[in-house]
Amino acid sequence: MPSPVKYALAGDIGGTNMRAALVDREGSFLARAVCATQPESGLNDAANRLTALFEEVVSRVPRDDVGGVVLSSAGPIDPETGMYDHPPNLPGWDGMTMKPGLTAALKLPVAIGHDATLGALAESRFGVGKGAQHLVYVTLSTGVGGGIIANGEMVTGAHGHAGEIGHLLVRPGGQSCNVGCDGCLEGIASGGGIARAAQAALAAGRASAMLEMAGGDAGAVTAQTVFEAAAEGDAAATEIVDVVIDAVAVGFANILNTLDPEYLVVGGAVTGSLQPYWDDLRARIEDKALPHFAGRVPLYVSPLGDDVSLVGAAALAFDIADATAV
């Protein structure tokens, strides 16, 4: 029997922003709040500001109607303890957790989940893969993360680190990610990785409109700059985008070959920039995947957008509340 709670608190910690939301059982948002993560200010400072966000959104309803809190976070992170393990986009947070502090401050049970794993849960409950038993969700954004649903359940692995799809090696010896994996998907196809590739090309003396577009400051070149320059036919930018497409195709083909999902769902800001190249990407995946994927690469763009991890966090919060009530 479902528990009587009507609402859940969902939080999300990304490399750039932290968000909190009050969510009902249909996945609808009743209130939300956001602030900058500022990981360089330390985990405790971030925890205090996140607590304030939660207090802001939960004030809209009676506290007794709220089942609990699930916090979605960039990882690697242990879902049991909330302990970070060298998170590349949250520098200085290694070996730390905000779970006990949030529990004490909010006086509600707090659970932790990897953001992409909760994204996969959201897609299997409310997204394009609603009802799927086997689904993989990949976010191409500041970093690259992944979540896996197998037999209808979240796959977290022995230490909560399953789904680190960003560190699949797709171009051995290539550009590194922030934790030093040479040639991994995150190193090449994340927003930061794309920007670093462009900045390196400019530093090597490559002529490109990207420099002018960034006001003459190579350090100001972003992934968006690269895609905009490529759209205008800039040769250097086009070459970088081609490398990104090929890296994503290799990574996605490996996912299909290994996990055989019903749905491979992709979200994140870089995904939006890749939309003009989607047919090319699909063709390259098909070329690199096993023959039985010919003509049926199950590639989809997330309809849940930036809210995917918050929706997944709320879904898990209700699961926990209902299981506790039985």
Strand % is 15-25%
Question: Spans with pLDDT under 50 lasting ≥5 residues?
Answer: none
Number of strands: 10
Order of helix and strand elements from N to C terminus? EEEHEHEHEEEHHHHHEHHEH
CATH class of the largest domain reads: Alpha Beta
Q: Oligomer, anyone?
A: single chain
Strand order of the largest sheet: 3-2-1-4-5
Given the C-alpha coordinates, what overall shape results? globular
The CATH architecture of the largest domain can be given as 2-Layer Sandwich
CATH topology of the largest domain: Nucleotidyltransferase, domain 5
- Give the fraction of residues assigned to helices: 25-40%
Arithmetic mean pLDDT: 93
How would you sum up this structure in a few lines?
This protein has eleven helices and ten strands. It has helices at about 45-60, 100-105, 115-125, 185-190, 190-205, 210-215, 225-230, 235-260, 270-275, 280-290, 310-325, and strands at about 5-15, 15-25, 30-35, 65-75, 110-115, 135-140, 145-150, 155, 265, 300.
Walkthrough of the structure:
With 326 residues, the chain is of the alpha/beta class. It folds into two domains: 135 residues, 2-Layer Sandwich (Nucleotidyltransferase, domain 5); 172 residues, Nucleotidyltransferase, domain 5. Helices cover 39% and strands 18% of the residues. The protein contains eleven helices and ten strands. The strands form two sheets. It has a five-stranded mixed beta sheet, sandwiched between helices. It has a five-stranded mixed beta sheet with strand order 8-7-6-9-10, sandwiched between helices. Helix 1 runs parallel beside helix 2, helix 3 crosses helix 11 and helix 8 crosses helix 10.
